[in-house]
């Protein structure tokens, strides 16, 4: 049932890392937060940590045909969707010439097409109320060239373009669309990418003016701001939260 003072958020990939930090920030502000992921254990642990305003749903968003029913079920249960954070994503580090068609398609399918389908189905509900906020999670890989992540870079660059196109088309209907481009953040995914490659890690830190990696909470703070009334006149923005990495020398 729709409640005037109630807010409902969906955070994909909400069981760990940046997604979990965003979910925790939203729950802390009294926002009913649905976290979606594929790992039941991670989601259940998050629910225990975050409490009664956290609602885990085990779902594989790469199954595109299942997404409309997923959103219908959420609407039936919660009555509204005010915020969608498209955080779920995968990475793959491979040389350009060894990246197969299947590798490339897998990354694009998960990081881009699933985001498009989920956003489309959520927006159908937001349009009925002429209100809503969608936040995509982009990447430094869309800000400048990075080696060995060609598919990931392509997917995140497309997310930036989609953010702007969606904002132009939907903002007049009361639906704001923005993105956050995290720099190098202390998460399991980043650790996997950097700890086995000391040279890459040093390069990442050396071009970050603040001189250290960020924390998931830094991204969560930005996601809370962009979803709040304080950002009521902000749409179509890709906000770097990166310690200056994107402008570093």
Automatic annotation (TrEMBL):
Pfam families: adh_short_C2. Keywords: Oxidoreductase. GO terms for molecular function: oxidoreductase activity, acting on the CH-OH group of donors, NAD or NADP as acceptor. The keyword Oxidoreductase applies. It comes from the Bacteria. InterPro entries: NAD(P)-bd_dom_sf (IPR036291), Sc_DH/Rdtase_CS (IPR020904), SDR_fam (IPR002347). CDD domains: SDR_c. Belongs to the short-chain dehydrogenases/reductases (SDR) family. This is NAD(P)-dependent dehydrogenase (Short-subunit alcohol dehydrogenase family). It comes from Chitinophaga dinghuensis.
